[in-house]
Amino acid sequence: MAYQCKEKLARKEVKRVDIQVARFREVLDLLKPAVARKSKIESLGYVLLKDGQAIATDLETMVIHSVPEADLTALVPLAKVTKFLQFTPGGEMLNVKGKRGKLSLSWANGSASFPMEDPENFPAVPEFVPEVEESLDIDALISAMAMVQPYAATDATRPVLNAVTLILGNPVEVAAGDGYRMADQVIPLQYPKEITVVIPNHSVTVLEHLLKKTPRTPPASDELIPVIMAKKLADVAHDGKQGLRFRFNKHTAAIVKSLEGKPPDWLKLIPKGDPILRVQLLASELELAVRRIMGVAKAGKEMARIAFEDKKAIVSAKEEGQESQTSFKTYESEGEPNKIALNASYLLEYLSGKQGLVTISWTGNAAPVAFLSRNDPRVLIMPMNEKD
User: Fold this and answer.
1) Judging by beta carbons within 10 Å of its beta carbon (0-12, 13-18, 19+), is residue 341 exposed, middle or buried?
2) Are both 279 and 366 inside the same structural domain?
3) Ramachandran category for residue 118: left, alpha or beta (phi over 0 → left; psi -120 to 50 → alpha)
4) Is there a smaller number of Cβ atoms within 10 Å at the N or the C end of the chain?
5) 162 within 8 A of 156, measured Cβ to Cβ
């Protein structure tokens, strides 16, 4: 018993740690998106080193990464230390100390010190009690969340729209929208419980970063192809009080606090009837056509008129005596009315960089116009009044 007490006391007295510069840079880079850039809480601009872990949070997302060699308690000012380490040889061993409001770094040929907030001011890691947990393919899940994210509202006064809605169940679905357009994607995954979670926009950005930065654990195999094609899995747990926890591997986890409030019933917004207009065309050709008429469209309400006739799409804009028109071939066109009007900027945002065929369908009246292309979310854009 006395030996255990002495060991604990010795551990508490550890005020310094040695870590390779390259390793320290990697840890800070991994946690960077979760560090708050602007906050009234000063400590959120730091990375906490404590109990062999590096922790960062912006109060929406907390990332926890195991760093066993960092057995000290200190706050690292991310921006200042990251800039400093850019010019420090990666192979050097870095000595890190935290004491009396100062963080000290030193290596064989140099040293630096930075003012340090009190680690006690950093938010505590919340107690996370999973109600349900399942291993999911995060290559598919997080990638789908990132693809619908651009369609979320940018107005922070509408939190449930400035977010991505994750609909867990069988299957899993993600959706986002701003009131004028929306995107949704069905993912062939199963979750043991039906749960709808509203994930803040920036949290999706953090998760996408972690997906890219955390190593893939390949299956045990003597063949190369199964290793290359292996899905990247993570344990996704839900706690009704805290939100979701993504455990990427034994070293890295992220806790995402779900937003309060009820999101729109996205699935009910998707037109269910048979389309009265259906067209198939090349995305790159429609993008080029919209760019050609964009100057005229921007002079007014940014309306792009699109008519379909004689296996052609005719894209035009009119405003204050100006008129611009261009046409290109369609691969399929059926139904009437054979024309629609859409916001030109929304069209360009959807089409930008997109390749291959796009199918456009419309059920008429005030229903949104649906865009569907291979391996991309279904996107809905509200039509404009062509008589304007």
Assistant:
1) buried
2) yes
3) beta
4) N
5) yes
What are the phi and psi torsion angles at 138 (to 5°)? Answer: -80, -15
On whether the CB atoms of residues 70 and 52 are closer than 8 A, the answer is yes
The residue out of 231, 265, 299 marking a domain boundary is: 265
SS3 208: helix
256, 140: one domain: yes
Q: Collect all residues with Cβ–Cβ distance below 8 Å to 4 and sequence separation of at least 6.
A: none
- Segments forming the whole domain that contains residue 152: 132-265
Average pLDDT over residues 128-136: 96
Q: Is 271 exposed, middle or buried, given 0-12, 13-18 or 19+ CB atoms closer than 10 A?
A: middle
Tell me if 387 is assigned to some domain. Answer: no
Lowest mean pLDDT among 141-145, 221-225, 316-320, 340-344: 221-225
**Tally of domains within the chain:** 3
104 vs 96: CA distance, rounded Å? 6
Predicted structure pTM score: 0.89
Q: CA-CA distance, 159 to 150, in Å (whole number)?
A: 15
Confidence at residue 255, expressed as pLDDT on a 0 to 100 scale: 98
- The answer to the question of residue 388 being in a domain is no
